Amino acid sequence: MAYLVSLTNDSTERVDGADAYQLEGPLTTFFRTAPGRAVVDCWSTRLASFRTVDIKSIRALEVAATA
């Protein structure tokens, strides 16, 4: 899975490999969760963070698996 993050400066960032995000203080952080887990916990890997006030929208993208 991936997320497309639109920012207030009219740029767009793609966060590949993320399957969850949550607020962490002034930041919105994107995570890859551990296999078989559906929650963000100590086994999750932080992939990217953005200042929440700079985010206009977040859109989830389904990424096609390659054989």
Provide structural commentary:
The protein has no helices and six strands. By secondary structure, the protein is mostly beta strands. The protein has one domain.
Strand order, biggest sheet?
Answer: 2-1-6
Rg computed from alpha carbons, rounded to a whole number of angstroms: 12 Å
Q: What fraction strand?
A: over 45%
Number of strands: 6
Write the layout of secondary structure elements.
Blueprint (H helix, E strand, L loop, with lengths): L1 E6 L4 E5 L3 E5 L2 E6 L12 E7 L3 E7 L6
Provide a concise account of the structure shown.
The protein has strands at residues 2-7, 12-16, 20-24, 27-32, 45-51, 55-61. With 67 residues, it is mostly beta strands. Strand 1 (2-7) and strand 2 form a beta hairpin.
Tags for this model:
3-stranded antiparallel sheet, mainly beta, flat, single chain, 67 residues
